[in-house]
TrEMBL record:
GO biological process: peptide catabolic process; proteolysis
One GO cellular component, as annotated: extracellular space
Family: Belongs to the peptidase M28 family.
Location in or out of the cell: Secreted
Keywords: Glycoprotein, Hydrolase, Membrane, Metal-binding, Metalloprotease, Protease, Secreted, Signal, Transmembrane, Transmembrane helix, Zinc, Zymogen
Keyword Calcium in record: no
InterPro entries the UniProt entry points to: CPQ
Official protein name in the record: Carboxypeptidase Q
Transmembrane segments: 7-27
GO function terms (MF aspect): metal ion binding; metallodipeptidase activity
Organism taxonomic ancestry: Eukaryota, Metazoa, Ecdysozoa, Arthropoda, Hexapoda
Length: 310
């Protein structure tokens, strides 16, 4: 969804745009952000241009997040109001459409230019009920959250022996052991979200390629309070679609420890997830025309939607 989250006036919209630019500028100057990566693949000249605004951006951030003054608590209160009022906002739901209506009205009230919604066809994924149980060597419920756009288990409880690995490389090296099993990928946190998230996006495909029945990954986060994290995953056209879900960090580490001790693991997985026919939603658009170079356009995009467990 393309939108500008505003504070109190059209000037405040500039705050959010420049904050975004500042974050990009700061991140793009980090050593791990190189043009070869898909995280920040921009030219050196563009990075320098963005970085030139860092002083202004930092001052705007300071003012807009200050503990005293005009904006005291406003960003937090506006965000809290939004999420409290609309709750989760996954594509295909009334919650999202109500949130879009609210944002369009808000942007109009700030007198921004060309405020409108643009219809867009979006997938309509429904989670349904889901559960995961360790059935051997002892019984324990495992908290999971299905990954976005995963298939389900076809109305049955999928029970199988388990292979635990820590990387795609290990999975390939142990491919003969994966066939007919539920594969748990207990990957380490690799120091950044961008590096680690490949296990979420590619797990189902990589496990299916070696004959696995389902993929369970460690949630993509360095810390946990027994909270599984969802997010986008993908399939490949020529590879069987298998269910994919995230475990908590705690349970992934427990299964890894048990596996290393030689305990025979067996899991029962149940997921009702399905993708229904596409639905029509809207992109939320607003413009703030500049004065020095009104013919130039800077696009700032973000999400109004959220996952269903948000």
């Amino acid at each position: 969804m393309v939108s500008s989250y505003t504070l109190s006036s059209s000037t405040s919209t500039i705050v959010c745009v420049l904050i975004f630019c500042g974050v990009v500028a700061i991140y793009c100057n980090k050593p791990e952000c190189k043009p070869a990566t898909d995280v920040c693949n921009v030219s050196p000249s563009l990075k320098r241009e963005i970085a030139n605004y860092s002083t202004i951006v930092k001052e705007i951030i300071r003012i807009s997040t200050e503990q005293e003054g005009k904006f005291k608590g406003k960003v937090w209160n506006d965000l809290a109001f939004f999420v409290d009022k609309f709750g989760n906002r996954i594509a295909g739901t009334k919650n999202l459409e109500n949130a879009i209506d609210y944002m369009l009205d808000l942007l109009h009230s700030y007198n921004l230019d060309n405020v409108h919604g643009e219809n867009v066809s979006t997938p309509h994924w429904v989670r349904g009920n889901e559960s995961c149980v360790l059935v051997s060597p002892r019984v324990q419920n495992l908290a999971i959250t299905g990954l976005g756009y995963s298939v389900g288990t076809n109305g049955t409880h999928l029970e199988a022996d388990v292979l635990v690995v820590q990387s795609f490389t290990e999975l390939q090296n142990r491919a003969d052991e994966a066939k007919g099993k539920i594969v748990v990928i207990a990957e380490d946190w690799l120091g950044s979200y961008g590096k680690t998230v490949v296990y979420r996006s590619r797990a189902a495909v990589e496990v299916a390629r070696v004959g696995g029945l389902a993929a369970l990954i460690r949630s993509v986060t360095p810390f946990s309070i027994y909270s599984p994290h969802t997010g986008m995953m993908s399939y490949s056209g020529n590879v069987t679609k298998i269910p994919a879900a995230a475990l908590t960090v705690e349970d992934a580490q427990m299964l890894l420890r048990m596996s290393k001790r030689g305990d025979p693991l067996r899991i029962s997985l149940y997921m009702e997830a399905q993708t229904l026919a596409n639905t029509t939603s809207r992109n939320t658009v607003a413009e703030l025309q500049g004065t020095t170079h009104p013919e130039k356009v800077v696009v700032v995009s973000g999400h109004l939607d959220s996952w269903d467990v948000g």
